[in-house]
């Protein structure tokens, strides 16, 4: 009955792989060193500039909080997000995966679901801002996460406009606007790229000494 066991095992492996395709690249790790999961929610904390985590707010004449910003208060975690791989079917978030970033709940006031991150151009400033879906003239694309050199468990976020893969991606950065908002933007240079760390939603924070 050796044969049957082997066959069963192979079938088991195949089914395991088809339901959760292994990522071809390194897993993205959270602040505790655990793999970041597509099924969980995370805060983006910023180790760089003395501010808090990424969140959402109203800017300009928005009546719904559609702008992704960094909280200026360093003790505020911000708004958690979840990830969706494209194509779907992965368990662990991998570096270089093309993914959607979405709020874990839908913003009813936005009129669009799911509440995904997207990019919106500002003609005056020739700048792409990271927004929550709700505008009709957004730039279609996906996001990517890459390990940030020199930062332990730190990562850069990138926006990759639609097109043939591999796509040409640009780093996200934080820029302060006229209203003192720390706006998340698609940067035109590589120099001010934002570094984020992943804090799992619902997990107790233990500051490391
Ligand atoms: C803000 O106002 C401008 C000018 O009236 C309009 O074009 C734009 O769509 C408005 N934005 C929002 C988010 O309502
Ligand atoms: C920052 O956030 C903390 C926690 O919510 C709050 O206690 C504190 O008053 C805030 N500080 C400022 C300057 O708003």
Which helices and strands occur, and which strands form pairs?
Elements: H1 2-19, E1 42-45, E2 54-57, E3 67-70, E4 82-85, E5 99-102, E6 117-122, E7 127-132, E8 138-139, E9 141-147, E10 155-161, E11 170-176, E12 182-186, E13 195-200
Antiparallel strand pairs: 1-13, 2-3, 3-12, 4-5, 6-7, 6-8, 7-12, 9-10, 10-11, 10-13, 11-12
One 2-acetamido-2-deoxy-beta-D-glucopyranose is lined by residues 61-62.
GO molecular function, one term: endopeptidase inhibitor activity
Signal peptide: 1-26
Keywords: Disulfide bond, Signal
Fold and architecture overview:
Strand 9 (141-147) and strand 10 (155-161) form a beta hairpin. The protein has one helix at 2-19, and strands spanning 42-45, 54-57, 67-70, 82-85, 99-102, 117-122, 127-132, 138-139, 141-147, 155-161, 170-176, 182-186, 195-200. The strands form two sheets. Strands 1, 2, 3, 6, 7, 8, 9, 10, 11, 12 and 13 form an eleven-stranded antiparallel β-sheet that branches. The chain has a two-stranded antiparallel ribbon with strand order 4-5. The protein is mainly beta. The chain is globular, with a radius of gyration of 19 Å. Residues 5-20 have low confidence and may be disordered. The protein has a single domain (7-200), classed as Trefoil (Acidic Fibroblast Growth Factor, subunit A). The chain starts with a helix and ends in a 9-residue tail after the last strand. It binds 2-acetamido-2-deoxy-beta-D-glucopyranose (2 copies). One 2-acetamido-2-deoxy-beta-D-glucopyranose (NAG) binds at residues 61-62. One 2-acetamido-2-deoxy-beta-D-glucopyranose is lined by residues 61-62.
């Amino acid at each position: 009955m050796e044969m049957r066991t082997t066959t069963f095992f192979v079938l088991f492996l195949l089914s395991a792989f088809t339901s959760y395709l292994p990522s071809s690249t390194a897993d993205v790790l959270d602040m505790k060193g655990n793999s970041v999961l597509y099924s969980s929610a995370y805060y983006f904390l910023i180790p760089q500039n003395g501010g808090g985590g990424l969140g959402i707010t109203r800017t300009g004449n928005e009546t719904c909080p559609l702008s992704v910003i960094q909280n200026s208060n360093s003790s505020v975690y911000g708004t958690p997000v979840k990830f969706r791989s494209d194509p779907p079917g992965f368990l662990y978030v991998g570096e270089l995966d093309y993914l959607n970033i979405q709020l874990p709940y839908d913003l009813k006031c936005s009129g669009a679901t799911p509440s995904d991150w997207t990019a919106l151009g500002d003609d005056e400033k020739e700048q792409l801002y990271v927004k929550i879906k709700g505008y009709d003239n957004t730039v279609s694309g996906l996001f990517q996460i890459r390990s940030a050199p020199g930062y332990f468990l730190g990562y850069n976020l990138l926006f990759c406009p639609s097109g043939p893969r591999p796509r040409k991606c640009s780093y996200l950065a934080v820029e302060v606007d006229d209203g003192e908002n720390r706006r998340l933007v698609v940067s035109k240079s590589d120099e001010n790229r934002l570094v984020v760390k992943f804090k799992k939603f619902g997990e107790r924070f233990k500051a490391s000494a």
